[in-house]
Design goal:
Helices cover about 5% and strands about 40% of the residues. The protein is mainly beta and about 180 residues long. The chain has one domain: Sandwich (Jelly Rolls). The protein is globular and about 50 Å long. The N and C termini lie far apart (about 40 Å). The relative contact order is 0.25.
Length: about 180
């Protein structure tokens, strides 16, 4: 695996290094020892699937505040997404800044998102599946979020969403929350 830092501390692009032959390819997707050796210790407690039927489906921007904060490793295993991380850590030098990566089944790329960073994505193709590996395990009832088009973040989404849940559409602006 290759780990590439982004402009936001702790948000890391994780690329696979597939071994290929006439049968196809094989690649390691997660190894606690490799993550730790790269300075990103992460041992998932839970794995979840987000199935998205339509292109331009937006999910997010979600996070879990302390003491239930989560680290997530997000990977698209079918289709393609524009994956976004927004730094909500007030003491961070990149507070309220965002970064994004295109994740697809084809590129095998993942985004590691640390505690205190909100996450969301926009599907770029229909029938898109996204796998989340999460640590610690998700605690229902402690969800939080910020609006996808909040001017405080000015995220340059590649398109406007066509499908969004009432909850995600109804989040307040970060400054108002």
């Amino acid at each position: 695996m290759r780990f590439t830092a982004t402009a936001i501390a702790g948000v890391v692009v994780v690329d696979i290094e597939p071994r290929t032959d006439e049968r196809g390819a094989f690649a390691r997707l997660h190894c606690p020892e490799e993550f730790a050796a790269a300075g990103h210790p992460f041992v998932p407690a839970q794995t979840s699937l987000s199935r998205n039927l339509h292109a331009r489906t937006l999910r997010g921007l979600h996070y879990q505040p302390a003491p239930y904060a989560e680290t997530k490793l997000v990977r698209c295993v079918r289709g393609r997404i524009f994956d976004v991380a927004v730094d909500l850590r007030p003491d961070s030098p990149t507070y309220r800044q965002w970064t994004a990566a295109e994740l697809s089944a084809e590129n095998g790329r993942a985004l590691l998102i640390p505690e205190g960073v909100a996450h969301g994505f926009l599907t770029l193709e229909p029938d898109t599946d996204v796998i989340y590996q999460i640590a610690p395990e998700y605690r229902p009832g402690h969800e939080a979020g910020v609006r996808w088009d909040d001017p405080a973040f000015a995220i340059a989404w590649p398109a406007a969403p066509e499908m969004i849940s009432p909850r995600d559409a109804g989040y307040l602006d970060y400054e108002a929350g």
